[in-house]
Amino acid sequence: MRVLVTGAKGQLGHDVVNELEKRGLEAVGVDVEEMDITDAPAVDRCIRGAGADAVIHCAAYTAVDAAEDNVELCRRVNADGTYNIARVCRELDLPMMYISTDYVFDGQGERPWDPDEKRDPLNVYGQTKCEGEMAIEKLLSKYFIVRIAWVFGVNGKNFIKTMLRLGKEKGAVSVVDDQIGSPTYTYDLARLLVDMIQTDKYGIYHATNEGLCSWYEFAQEIFRQASMDVEVTPVSSEQFAAKAKRPKNSRMNKDKLDEMGFERLPSWQDALSRYLAAVGGPV
Ligand SMILES: NC(=O)c1ccc[n+]([C@@H]2O[C@H](COP(=O)([O-])OP(=O)(O)OC[C@H]3O[C@@H](n4cnc5c(N)ncnc54)[C@H](OP(=O)(O)O)[C@@H]3O)[C@@H](O)[C@H]2O)c1
User: From ligand 1's centre to the CA of 73, what distance in Å?
Assistant: First the structure.
């Protein structure tokens, strides 16, 4: 099987390419240099030229706060870019996996979100990822939409790296304690995605590491596991005042993974310890 992976230089794409190769499958990893997804003719050329049997689409505009000021660019990448890929997949009858986000939901309540629940994003990034989902649903029947959340991987910027840096530089951090979700290690997620793409169990899935926490609790656990003495102060989303609004409830219902015979990911604490070992401990 030959799989084209977009966003191969990002956190998730990097690990998906590695996972495919580890299993003896062929991976064609592309990023903006090889295939700018906003360039429809380039997308067409590149997917046809790759001779792929499936596409795993990990590329995205992921700067959530910056997106509030760069609406057009964010939409071009996340919505139009996804449409461009889906259109070629339809013409070539290729299964497509689109990686989406908990940010398609409004974060109200405390109940875990079901995959088929109403989308109602709070910010520009979430809105454009939602538009990407709608393009896939409109154009394709052979698709996976996999919503993930709170991502960390060795290849790129993430919350853990930021905490380790701030902890080292300042010895104290303030972290929001009213957004609840599940951190997700791209190394673990890549295994599940490669399991999925080899099946025809199409549909919308939620996938994160197991267990829940707030960003505040996540930060505490990072410093505990890294044996760093850092003062962590809980603050509300309102006090933190990020540019983009974020959902407070990012609990995701993953029962569908069990129902469809897919293996869930390990706990986020276990994932964190393996991540810290992989990056060689504190920065
Ligand atoms: N990070 C999270 O917490 C999170 C949470 C939920 C869902 N997700 C979703 O998970 C997926 C993977 O996220 P990630 O954290 O691995 O993202 P990432 O590290 O930001 O990687 C995304 C990659 O896409 C590339 N890209 C941007 N614009 C492009 C374009 N026009 N054409 C081609 N490639 C382009 C980026 O290149 P540049 O770096 O040069 O821009 C980058 O290499 C994304 O779909 C994201 O929406 C992420």
Answer: 13
